[in-house]
Design goal:
single chain, mainly beta
């Protein structure tokens, strides 16, 4: 399985949740595959899980043409 957050491939390391007024919100701590940097507190609802590896288009990354 491959995990993505805003088009960035990540490796989840930890999952935690917070109880709030509108219910329970889940968060994920992960490591950015490309840079190796740790990303903490990613909202679980925004994580995309894919069975295939999606290679980003080099011309268009995050909607910006480089």
């Amino acid at each position: 399985m491959y995990f993505y957050y805003k088009g960035i491939q990540i490796i989840p390391t930890n999952q935690w949740e917070v109880d709030g007024d509108s219910g329970t919100v889940q968060f994920i701590d992960a490591i950015n595959v490309r840079t190796g940097r740790e990303m903490t507190g990613l909202p679980a609802k925004k994580i995309v899980v894919s069975k295939i590896h999606v290679l980003p288009n080099k011309e268009e990354v995050n909607g910006k043409i480089s």
